[in-house]
Amino acid sequence: MGTNDERRDPDPAGSGSEPSRADLSLLEEVLKHWRLIEHLPAGVVVYSPDARILLANPEAAHLLGIAADRMEGRTITEFPFRLLHEDGTPLPLEEYPVNRVLRSGLPQGNIVVAIDHGPSAPCGWALVNAYPEQDSAGQMQRVVVTSVDITALKAAEQESRRRIAELEAVNQLSAALRSAQSLEEILPILLDTTLAVMRMQHGAVWLYDPISDELKTAITRGLGEEAGSLPLVEKPGQGIAGRVFSSGQPDLSEDLSVDERLPEAIRRRIPRKRASLAVAIRMANSPIGTFTVDAEAPRKIGPDDVRLLSTLCEIAGIAIHRTSLREQTERRLQHLTALSEIDRVIASSFDLHISLPPLLSQVTRQLRVDAADILLHNPGSQRLEFFAGYGFRFRYIEETRMAMGEGYPGLAALERRTIHVADLRKHSAEFVRKMLLAEEEFVTYFGIPLIAKAQVTGVLEIFSRVSLHPDAEWLEYLKALARQAALAIDNVTLFEGLQRSNAELGHAYDATIEGWSHALDLRDKETEGHTQRVADTTVRLCRSFGFSEAELVQIRRGALLHDIGKMGVPDSILLKPGPLTEEEWAVMRKHPSFAYEMLSPIRYLRPALDIPRYHHEKWDGSGYPHGLRGEQIPLVARVFAVVDVWDALTSDRPYRAAWPAERVREHVRALSGSHFDPEVVVRCLDSGVLG
Fold first, then answer.
1. pLDDT (tens digit per residue) in 495-535
2. Which band of pLDDT confidence, cut at 50, 70 and 90, is reported for residue 286?
3. What average pLDDT score do residues 299-324 get?
4. Which of 157, 226, 349, 371 is within CB 3.0–4.6 Å of 269 for a Cys-Cys bond?
5. Is the residue at 346 inside a domain?
6. Contacts of residue 364, Cβ cutoff 8 Å, sequence gap at least 6
7. Nearest CA to 208 among 131, 317, 127?
């Protein structure tokens, strides 16, 4: 298809001379070729040995965009188009198909070339074959070049490649995002992968903050020195990113440096010929941000780029939505776990010094704040007083003593509402704890009243050293933690009140029992003081036998009431100065049964019945009222039997003087195995309690 050789004159003798035989022969050949190629569906161009065009059929003229009669006698380099390689680079002159044949004398087949008609016309594609025609002597006569228009085929091929490239990009991004577990992991993968597959170097991801109602740049790449002048925040509907976010429609700017939607100060910092594409990122049909990419000349941004970036943004939206749901689920699980742990601590302890510090630790951890404290309401002084704190650098918080209505916590308690101060620095005059504010450098404050059973029990305070913009879920969880704190305080208050009531009731019970025992002593003057002594001694001995403190309380009550049954014995028998008759002894031996009948209806005294009921039973079974033997007798009754005899013999009575301790010891040992449990005798006498 042509050389740079100068065009030769086909008629050197002048236009007026007669045609030679050679000229007539050439004309005949041309006419023959014309008849053969005129109606062929492929383009055919016949060249002379000096690379000038002898003949071109209509299909060739259409493909090359030049009328056939304008081509004759000229070389292909004289026409306003270029031949290009498949990769778009210019085809060197020596590589033109006709020149290959002229140089080698051999056919050249299946050469794919692009025909570039300039920027105003689309590029055409042709499959070219060239072969020589020689005479019988082997001299080059002509070169025939055939061309088939494969523009549509090439376009389909390019479309297929583009589609494959898009699918590969989608697959690459999907695979990369599949392993991301958080937004912090997603954003770098999203931006870097997108820039790589789109062959761009500049990009940014903007995310919408519903609290501040702003789009903020979450991550950028390749913006260079001009990044300092680019807006880091845009309002929805304003600027390129904000407009795309609001409209949902892609935006293509061919040159940001002259885009009047950007402030002039920013445009001056952007290099010339930088195109920009912005596409909205959506999550569950709602916009969550904007993706912007920039391309520097000669890279242009076209419809294919818009389609590809839109597809990648859809994938990004799905990934962000998936991660958001997972993070939300994990966060809620953590919240529930924390609430459960707080419940466990509250249920396991009725000491606020134990239950409130873990609660405050969970408050700071789950809400991601720096410090928290609880001020308890003192009903007596009507003041809020510091009780527990977590996360403070200094101890100024412990000095907090505030009246209802004073300062932010007093206002929260008095008005029973949450107090939120977004920036304490702007309200320092209203913050009465000056040293706390100055030293701790807090920025955000929350004060939440703790209310249980319609009563304010205190205030939970939250402090952050950075600005907070909490969402509804955060605020709801804060209220849940406040309810937990109020519950803990209320439980402890109820428990302490119950303990006081139980203690008072227990004291009343014991006072009543001691009153009964004292009345018995007064009735039976011979045993005055006996009841209190045996009660004290029995408790001391039973403690050495391993009884618990709770059991010792019942043992003491039983010892004090051991002779309560004598209230059923007539004075004539109980106070008789002489010996009792057999009938009178039969009545006297009923007093343990009388004790059981009197005390068993009283529920709280049932655990104390063993001593009043069985203290006259004997180890050998000869005792009364049931004739129990050995270990059938409760241990406390066996111990009390030893103590009862010991005290009776070591005390003065109207009818005899007290025995010496050693004599009593011998007497007790003598009764071991008959009256007393032998093992109990040994342990009682060896304990040192009896003296």
1. 666 777 677 676 777 777 777 766 666 666 555 678 888 99
2. confident
3. 84
4. 226
5. no
6. 370, 371, 372, 390, 391
7. 317
Identify the three-state secondary structure at position 629: coil
Q: Is the pLDDT of residue 28 over 80?
A: no
Taking residues 155-182, what's their average pLDDT? Answer: 74
Q: What integer best gives the mean pLDDT of the chain?
A: 83
What pLDDT score was predicted for residue 3? Answer: 37
Domain boundary among 88, 121, 149: 149
Mean pLDDT throughout 163-186?
75
**Cα–Cα distance, 291 to 444 (Å, whole number):** 32
Q: Which residue shows structure tokens 């010991």?
A: 646
Closest CA to 270 of 336, 202, 337: 202
Q: Are residues 545 and 678 in the same domain?
A: yes
Q: State how far the Cα of 95 lies from the Cα of 511, in Å rounded to an integer.
A: 123
Residue 642, classed as helix, strand or coil, is helix
388 and 459: one domain? yes
Edge to edge, the sheet with strand 202-209 lists: 233-234, 214-221, 202-209, 286-296, 274-283, 251-253
What is the pTM assigned to this prediction? 0.48
DSSP one-letter string for 470-530? --HHHHHHHHHHHHHHHHHHHHHHHHHHHHHHHHHHHHHHHHHHHHHHHHHHHHSGGGTTH
One domain for residues 295 and 264: yes
324 and 421 co-located in one domain: no
Determine the pLDDT at residue 15: 43
- Looking at residue 631, the DSSP 8-state letter turns out to be G
Distance CA(141)–CA(166), nearest Å, equals 51
- What phi and psi values does residue 464 have, to the nearest 5 degrees? -135, 140
CA within 13 Å, CB half, 217 = 17
Residue 76 above 70 pLDDT?
A: yes
Q: Find the CATH number of the domain harbouring 135.
A: 3.30.450.20
Indicate if 543 and 484 belong to the same structural domain.
no
pLDDT for res 8:
37
Residues in the chain, overall count: 691
Q: Do the domain assignments include residue 510?
A: no
Domain that holds residue 631: 524-686
Q: Tens digits of per-residue pLDDT, 396-417?
A: 899 899 999 999 999 999 999 9
Indicate the residue among 149, 175, 198 that finishes a domain: 149
CATH number, domain of 670, equals: 1.10.3210.10
Does 11 fall in a domain? no
Please determine, for residue 211, whether its predicted confidence score (pLDDT) is greater than 50: yes
| Tokens read off for 40 | 């062929």
| Same domain membership, residue 369 and residue 309 | no
DSSP codes joined into one string, 193-258? HHHHHTT-SEEEEEEEETTTTEEEEEEEES-GGGGGGS-SEE-TTSHHHHHHHHH---EEES-GGG
pLDDT the model gives residue 470: 84
Judge whether 343 lies within some domain.
Answer: no
> Can you give the pLDDT at residue 465?
92
CA distances for 144 relative to 30, 113, 379, angstroms: 12, 17, 112
Rounded to 10 degrees, the C-alpha dihedral 16/18/23/25 comes to: 150
Instruction: Tell me which residue of 424, 420, 494, 499 sits closest to 457, measured CA to CA.
Output: 494
Question: What is the count of structural domains for the chain?
Answer: 4
The enclosing domain of 225 has a CATH number of 3.30.450.40
Please indicate, yes or no, whether residues 294 and 356 belong to a single structural domain of this protein: no
Helix 661-670 to helix 678-686 angle, to the nearest 10 degrees?
160
pLDDT reported for residue 229 = 46
3-state secondary structure of 453: coil
Instruction: Please give the pLDDT value at position 322.
Output: 80
Distance of CA 244 to the CA centre of its chain: 30
